[in-house]
Design a protein that fits this description.
With 250 residues, the chain is an alpha/beta fold. It has eight helices and ten strands. 33% of the residues lie in helices and 19% in strands.
Length: 250
């Protein structure tokens, strides 16, 4: 893992987007196409805003998957991640192929089979992810399953995760936050050739410290990123505020 720390969240987002754009351009140049994973949530606002303005990306030669979706939500629900990505990414650039997670599919087993079949056939060049306040990676809350091979799985959301979704303003009450979701698994995320992880804000500082300075453990799901040979972690001054000097200088 390579750590990058910036004075502001804006500078962090711009730098992460520049690297993301470079990785996409390189994959397209090398293979003719690029496949990527898009994350959602407040941590991705600035990153996506910068990414969609990045020059010289042949978006029509890219394929997008996204990380997770609430079970039972329509694509137009205010908190739907499909809606989030339509508003901030897929309506801004002409992505060639978009594979959304249909959390409201009438048969979730068939939806999982569809997504898992697609991912089995398409190597991911770069994954864009964040880290949750509880250290989660996608919706893999602690204790996360580091061993499941299935690309997409059904997960239960813990209370810390649900409080984060409420705290970010996606829901009117905590009771409105779903308890289950479809999520990309840890092993599938780690199969990405490169990973860009963007984590702004003070409220993520303890999770960042736990994931970087604690043991690599299912109790700190994003700690697994330390084992990825091409993971680039972008922090701002606030999210990095609890890290030791030795971690910052490593």
């Amino acid at each position: 893992m390579k750590l990058h720390v910036y004075d502001s969240s804006d500078a962090m987002a711009k730098a992460a987007a520049e690297m993301a754009a470079r990785l996409l351009r390189e994959a397209i140049s090398r293979k003719g196409r690029a496949a990527f994973i898009a994350a959602t949530g407040a941590s991705q606002f600035g990153f996506l805003q910068s990414l969609v303005t990045a020059p010289h990306i042949a978006w029509e030669r890219t394929t997008m998957f996204h990380l997770d979706e609430y079970i039972g939500f329509s694509a137009d629900h205010p908190a739907s991640f499909r809606r989030y990505l339509r508003e901030r990414l897929t309506s801004k650039v002409p992505i060639g192929t978009v594979h959304f997670v249909e959390g409201d599919a009438p048969d979730l087993g068939k939806e999982l089979s569809r997504l898992n079949g697609l991912l089995a056939a398409i190597p991911i060049d770069v994954g864009f992810v964040g880290i949750g306040e509880n250290g989660h990676l996608a919706f893999n809350d602690p204790p996360a399953d580091f061993d499941v091979e299935t690309p997409f799985i059904i997960v239960n959301l813990d209370e810390a995760c649900r409080r984060q979704q409420f705290g970010e303003g996606w829901f009117e009450t905590i009771d409105d936050v779903p308890r289950r979701a479809l999520s990309m698994s840890i092993k599938q995320i780690m199969k990405s050739a490169a990973i860009i992880c963007t984590v702004p804000e003070k409220r993520k500082a303890q999770a960042v410290k736990s994931c970087l300075e604690g043991e690599i453990s299912p109790m700190f799901p994003a700690s697994i990123l330390r084992r990825h040979p091409h993971c680039f972690l972008f922090l701002d001054r606030e999210s990095a505020s609890l890290l030791s000097a030795s971690t910052l200088s490593a």
